[in-house]
Fold these 3 entries.
Entry 1:
Amino acid sequence: MDIELSMIEKIVRNVMEEMLNEKHQPKGENKLGVFKNMNDAVEAAWVAQREYSKYSLSKRGEIIKAIREELSKNVDAFAKLGVEETGMGRYEHKVLKHQLAIEKSPGVEDLKSEVNTGDGGLTLYEMSPFGVIGSIAPSTNPTETIICNTIGMLAAGNSVVFSPHPGGKKVSVLAVEIINKAIEKVNGPKNLVVTVKEPTIESTNVMLKHEKINMICATGGPGIVKIALSCGKKAIGAGAGNPPAVVDETADIKKAAKNIVDGCSFDNNLPCIAEKEVIVVDAVADELVDAMRKYHTFEIKDQETLKRLQKLVLTEKGTINKDFVGKNADYIMKQIGVTIDKDVKVIFAEVNKEHPFVLEELMMPILPIVRVKNIDEAIELGVQVEHGNRHTAIMHSKNVDNLTRFARAVQTTIFVKNAPSYAGIGYGAEGHTTFTIAGPTGEGLTSAKTFTRKRRCVLSEGFSIR
């Protein structure tokens, strides 16, 4: 009799849950997670997460593997469409960025449980999902952000609602569709990853305020991060940076020059980690400049040309002219009547420390170089121009004491020593990658565990077998 009642109760619960899911199932979706209306998208993700919460960790791993495999087949399409739609960056670098996001974004292996045992019993610490996460992606790295956030958030057991930048909506929608196609192939929940076809400020606001969104993750400029942090929910903010590259008199100058040019030019300086200004000790400044000339660069030596460039890429208010963000060096110089080789990767010029190119995060292949008397002045200026973003800093030196001093003074999330800036996100170096670097809120390089709640389960006076 007890067994029969138990079976009846189970059937009733299942029927009630199916009815609840049908009630909340939104209308007007396409079959791969793209909706016309943000409310419908959130409702669909909420239903999907309820189902996903019943899945085993191994099934989550199977879904993540399928997503990686499906995305890998479409790297070329993401890179081409990304350049075409946004008008920013370089195709060959976007290929590398997508491969990095697909291959080095941690999955379920990132979720490590902890345990304490002793005379008082056993206490277990587990990482559990938040539920439905609302994620804002920028136009500078639209699909790279969607890919690494999807892998981390799904590995953690969440569903995710993306609000991409309108400037990258086509490639963002493509990424969401391909992710859902992969999930479908391994019989995962429908609408585990969703977005809207036409993202707007209004649709983003709906997502931020929706009662069924449990966490917000905003990747972009200081404006959108501030909005996200004001929404009243748990929020992770990945904001702007202005990474200085400091070079002291002990550095391998030829290597430093190549590393700086490679890092600064990567995807035309779109990544927030990229070298935005160089601060070099005077004793080796001439040697560094001479070495940089040999690595597909163009040096501006006359002040008139520099002023014309400044007027072009900065507005009257001193902010960046977005029309030139992520553009090729030859295209930028052509607009001021200077023809340079298409192979030029970086435009550079020596300037004073108050120059706008030093103080503003340009996100263009334009690199100001500032001479200083000694390492003390270099460190002081590096901290100053980083603006307290605590994002990224780079240093070229063989002096461990100097490296330590700058790292302690600048307090950045990423500190790269004797390498291009992109080593800081795992390209050509050890460590996982991410395109959501949470400096403002302190989580650092996000991964699956970032998107979990730490829960404590206590068994008093039991199961301690030491």
Note: Residues 2-24 form the longest helix (23 residues).
Entry 2:
Amino acid sequence: MALIDDFNAAVAHSKELTKRPSNEELLDLYALFKQATEGDVTGERPGGFDFKAIAKFDAWASRKGTDKEQAMQQYIELVEKLHQNYA
């Protein structure tokens, strides 16, 4: 249970950054969050000109095969790193 508590605290902590992380860092946060909470990406890759949706899908898909606990731990570590750089 401690990992889930730490993960939930990191999610709350990620919203307290005073500066905006880079787009790549935000995509990493998104992908790790989705992998930790939902598992592997499902559905088809968005098409057309919805570049934001495509980037988010690709970021999540890049984490395919990572188990939920690993994704939670990586998310926690990323939030700690971002907090050092952007708090």
Note: The chain has four helices and no strands.
Entry 3:
Amino acid sequence: MTDPLTRIRQAALELPGTEERVSHGQPTFFVAGKQFAQFRDNHHGDGRTVVCVRTSGIDEQTMLLEADPETYSRPAYLPSWVAINVGGNDVDWDHIGDRIASSWELAAPRRLLEAGGR
């Protein structure tokens, strides 16, 4: 089984114009200088392994948090984002890839979106 960071890294780096940098001690993915995904493992001792991604806004964030609180949580320091649990054996990696790609679309400049995006 591939570790969560490797799978997240693969999903993020296949998107056009993406780069990985450490931000606040965490592996973080950027497009055109804008953050769209961050991997967190035991962030501030919370015991969770998650990927944080953008949502379209507070309404989508609230809907996800209420619909599936086992999967989604509210990440510290990232308003209107969600943290998706990637610890454990029953992670839906296709769903994680889709959420990472959607987050990229929310951050990417128009020129990348118009070039075909993902």
Note: The two ends are 25 Å apart (CA to CA).
